[in-house]
Amino acid sequence: MAQAIAAARLGAGLTYRNPLVGAVIVKNDRVLAVGHHVGFGHAHAEVDAYQHVTHPEDVIGSTMYVTLEPCSHYGKTPPCAHQLVRWGVKEVYVAQQDPNPLVGGKGIAYLREHGVQIHVGLMETVARQLNRAYNFYYEYQRPLVTVKVAQSLDGKLSLNDGKRTYLTDMVANADVDHLRATQQAILIGSQTAIDDDPRLLVKERVAYPPVRVLLDRRNRVSHTSRLWQTNEAPLWHFVTGKESTKGIEDKDTRRTFKTSEWSIDKVIQTLSDQGVQSVLVEGGAHIQDAFLRVGLVDQLIIYQVPEIFGGRSLASFASRADSMRMRFTPVTIEKCGNATKMAFIRPSLAADWGLD
Amino acid sequence: MAQAIAAARLGAGLTYRNPLVGAVIVKNDRVLAVGHHVGFGHAHAEVDAYQHVTHPEDVIGSTMYVTLEPCSHYGKTPPCAHQLVRWGVKEVYVAQQDPNPLVGGKGIAYLREHGVQIHVGLMETVARQLNRAYNFYYEYQRPLVTVKVAQSLDGKLSLNDGKRTYLTDMVANADVDHLRATQQAILIGSQTAIDDDPRLLVKERVAYPPVRVLLDRRNRVSHTSRLWQTNEAPLWHFVTGKESTKGIEDKDTRRTFKTSEWSIDKVIQTLSDQGVQSVLVEGGAHIQDAFLRVGLVDQLIIYQVPEIFGGRSLASFASRADSMRMRFTPVTIEKCGNATKMAFIRPSLAADWGLD
Lengths: 356, 356
Fold this sequence. Notes:
Two copies of one chain form a homodimer.
Chain A: H1 2-8, E1 22-27, E2 30-36, H2 45-51, E3 63-68, H3 80-87, E4 91-96, H4 106-113, E5 117-120, H5 124-128, H6 132-140, E6 144-152, E7 156-158, H7 170-181, E8 185-189, H8 190-196, E9 211-215, H9 226-229, E10 235-240, E11 245-251, E12 254-259, H10 264-273, E13 278-283, H11 285-293, E14 299-305, E15 307-308, E16 314-315, E17 326-327, E18 329-336, E19 339-345
Parallel strand pairs in A: 3-4, 4-5, 6-13, 6-14, 8-9, 8-13, 9-10, 10-12
Antiparallel strand pairs in A: 1-2, 1-3, 7-16, 11-12, 14-19, 18-19
């Protein structure tokens, strides 16, 4: 199973909304083949492994180790559970049952009904870490929300001189770029769009660039902004409007979402309805605080640079609301360019993430 | 010399304004004795080592390794340089010349004039770290200023509910107590004295508890405060007044410092005049920012707890002044109870601290 988990990771960045999955076919204590889900719309791990077997007839009576329950529905590829039976696989070890209700338990049931010996739960905690956002999305029915903060030692996001404040260096920026590349959506508020005029594009080559979500209730962001002028990634524009619209396609990759009032909850629900499994919230302070306030900070990643801004510089998570106290569980801390990178999660996720 | 440096550390917490010093007497490749400065007003390292020699006549023709230049002036003890000559020491290795102008170079000159072979600079960088504040005080003619901050992940010092916010747990508090115990003074502003009503006493048993400095320009702090009501450590009260007074002793350990206007520079100058070699600035936000603004943050120690306060909670180093950008050099980062403890220094100190 450890080999199947390692194989699964080869699909990182390519499977989009599909999970990373690895599979190993074993017979008489010999590995016949290793496979992984190679990309969205491409072969599933089980099929990929089967295709790597030298003599297909060897698979008859074999054992398969697979990190996620084989699928049982016709999607972009025929259901794996059916194939396994057809190939004559005798025994299957599954690390994790699929949280997707389309599959959940049905693949396992199909295999059992067709006389395959099946064992569920081997190395489950490790295997689950392959697909944190995927699992979260199906288990909590909403995207995993990561808030990213780049701040000074005194927790400040920017000076108060009206210009964009650059905090992190090239090395840390590359790390942020990679963080973005692993997300299905990146969200900013209108003030950040106006002040910083970012593109929110990912430099890393990715098969599916994250959707850029602009929360711009009062429709303040200029169409000459760089966000608007670039179309290398989708731009979803959330504005307040009388009639409700869900994703009118303005032009190419641009869609407008309208409703009479956008709360943070409603924005996340809309992204959820669109199938978005992970969102990176990039700021500014008011947006950070708004997510905190409704309990929608699942993961918090701070890049802290060794400077003090002092005075009336803008603090992270600052707003006019009452202060509150939200505890997080530390996950990692590491040097990252000129910054110290610290990752935290909501304490209730510690068990899911294998950290308790 | 490494052995002398290790010996020097045995005096930690006992030498007060005197430096930590270690000495080793060697003859024919054998260690005759090891000594250290055992405490303020007690034997210097050289004398302590001599007292540990079994046969004093063995010292004739010996070599001494001493971490700091032997003294040449009559203070609380007779000058060591004179003693070394009298004992017949033939050769002396000194790690660091004494930065104290009363001694600086004179001990070395005395030994050289009296026919002792002398070598200066062996393991100097390491030896200098024994006495960072002592060296700083004589080299920069003012105390080493350490600003200590306990804050949330978003850089907040306290909630805005008017009550004291406790951030750090027992383990981190014990570390803060030890930090205080290594300082000659602890400084707070009147607002912190009023809001938190701290005692600023050190729980760790120390020979010389740090002076508690209360910067209370408008004389706002009540005499019923815990700071006022405790006398286990000196309390120096800095208030604005028409006549200037330097340390009128009110009662036991309490002194009042008055002048027409107290700037941060003037406060530090006054502490310097009083011989204070190290000051720990404990807050609040305005005081932190005031020290930052005049460039008087030599060392910065942050205890950051894994919580977010958000909203209008009070940010560290916050004031109404313009924001600025002050860079620091990271020194250490470690887990400390519920906090991450991070130490930084002014970049120009990196060489002095052996960090470049």
